[in-house]
Amino acid sequence: MENNSTWHTQFSKGILELTILVILKKRPMYGYEITQSIRQDGVLHVGNGSIYPILRRLVEQEWISAYEEEHAGRTRKYYQLTKDGQTQLTARLTYTKELMHMLTRLDEEGADDAVSDN
């Protein structure tokens, strides 16, 4: 779903942080690898370099940590989830699931209601 509305943009920015935490739960990754993982499903659209401010903020909050490793003559910065990050991830996923449950319930309750064009 592609939508250029302000709401869609703001919602996507908010969910991007959670998405990064979920991705890093699997294993440590470097920035480009994280971006590719996000792009894989085609749902969230992220530009090259757009995740780095979020990664810096997550490191400052100590939800992820960073370390450098040499690969093919280049230094890559890898990011990994911390214990505090796992705690935050669990809490945010629980909240997100509760929101989705509520929205689904409300949508299903309203499915039989006529939509007014007024």
TrEMBL record:
InterPro entries given in the database record: Metal_resp_DNA-bind_regulator, Tscrpt_reg_PadR_N, WH-like_DNA-bd_sf, WH_DNA-bd_sf
Domain of life: Bacteria
Gene3D superfamilies reported in the protein's UniProt record: Winged helix-like DNA-binding domain superfamily/Winged helix DNA-binding domain
Domain Transcription regulator PadR N-terminal: 20-90
PANTHER family hit by this protein: PADR-FAMILY TRANSCRIPTIONAL REGULATOR, TRANSCRIPTIONAL REGULATOR RV3488
Name listed for the protein in its UniProt record: PadR family transcriptional regulator
Species this protein is from: Paenalkalicoccus suaedae
Origin organism lineage: Bacteria, Bacillati, Bacillota, Bacilli, Bacillales
